[in-house]
Write a structure and sequence with these properties.
seven-stranded parallel sheet, Rossmann fold, about 325 residues, NAD(P)-bd_dom_sf, oxidoreductase activity, acting on the CH-OH group of donors, NAD or NADP as acceptor, five-stranded parallel sheet, about 20% strand, 10 helices, alpha/beta
């Protein structure tokens, strides 16, 4: 079988290469300096990171059997078309949950402690932390209310850590009473609501943290109405997908001081334009989509990817399948 990987992270490529050697599987990486389609036309299994896998892309790979996403989000893949073509789509749903949860608290603490990095004028671009707003003190997390939107595996890990900080935790999620690994979701939070109660939960939050997948239901879920419901002192965190939030509405809210600040690990268009309007605001922080990329996470991600590859090679269904495929196709 021809197995190709569309990966740009050097560390991740090295980890995948090590796992492939250990499993005696031949893995080829695409060269992003050359046209992609000629390189992947003969592939049977495609490992994807951030590239868009649409109808035209899929049609250019007549032998493809599996599109393996390297993370939990599959919004860049035309899953419906893959299903109609008999192509499996698999993701990696739990491997980086702890990494993302910890990164959430990095962003949270950055915001509430009212700090930013001031770069020194030096060749090394070193700097020091200074107050972000000179007339404002930092705050504690103890006693603050955290609203988690999307109480899946990552959302639960965030809730656990919030409890350790002494926070009150409320959550809004699509299936609030569905059991998850380790017990009912309600055991991890103080209050749990369905999506229909979002507008009632938002005004209670000191920090709103997004952990929901991007789909037709969640796109622009946080718009002008929702941002206007937030406390003026509240912060917004997004480590899921930028498109869950309306960019125009966020810019307006930050500029007018309707919310205190926002911190994202994702953006609407990546790579990010350094001149983007949001990046010019003092009350907005962006990290470069690295929340889920740690040594521990990519080790676990690689393990799951190769389990799925080996299952396909044995004629089995991927362990972390996300679509329904007609086996008769």
């Amino acid at each position: 079988m021809k197995i190709k990987a569309m990966i740009q992270s050097l560390e991740f490529k090295q980890q995948l290469a090590r796992k492939a050697d250990k499993s005696n599987i031949r893995l080829e990486f695409v060269n992003y300096n050359e046209p992609l389609i000629p390189q992947i036309q003969d592939t049977d299994i495609l490992i994807n990171s951030f590239d868009k896998i649409d109808k035209s892309f899929i049609d250019s790979c007549p032998n493809i059997k599996l599109v393996q996403q390297s993370g939990i989000g599959v919004d860049s893949i035309d899953i419906d078309y893959c299903s109609r073509k008999g192509i499996y789509v698999a993701n990696v749903p739990m491997a980086n949950a702890i990494s993302v949860a910890e990164h959430t608290f990095l962003l949270m603490l950055y915001l509430v402690k009212n700090i930013k990095i001031s770069l020194f004028n030096s060749p090394t671009n070193t700097g020091s932390f200074v107050r972000r707003q000179q007339d404002r003190m930092g705050s504690e997390l103890l006693g603050k209310t955290l609203l988690i939107i999307g109480l899946g595996v990552t959302g639960i890990e965030v809730a656990k850590r919030a409890k350790a900080f002494g926070m009150k935790v409320i959550a809004v999620t699509k299936h609030p009473f569905t059991k998850t690994e380790g017990g009912d979701k309600k055991y991890f939070v103080d209050n749990l609501y369905g999506v229909d109660k979002l507008s009632e939960a938002i005004p209670r939050a000191d920090i709103l943290s997004i952990h929901a997948p991007l789909n037709r239901e969640t796109e622009n879920m946080i718009g002008s109405n929702e941002l206007n419901l937030m406390k003026q002192s509240a912060y917004l965190i997004n480590v899921a997908r930028a498109q869950v939030v309306s960019k125009d509405a966020l810019i307006k809210s930050l500029k007018e001081g309707k919310i205190a600040g926002a911190a994202f690990d994702v953006f609407w268009k990546e790579p990010v334009d350094p001149k983007d309007e949001l990046l010019l605001l003092d009350n907005f922080l962006l990290t470069p989509h690295i929340a889920g990329w740690t040594h521990e996470a990519i080790d676990s991600i690689s393990d799951i990817i190769f389990i799925n590859i080996e299952r396909i090679m044995r004629g089995q269904i991927p362990l972390t399948l996300v679509n329904k495929v007609d086996e008769n196709l």
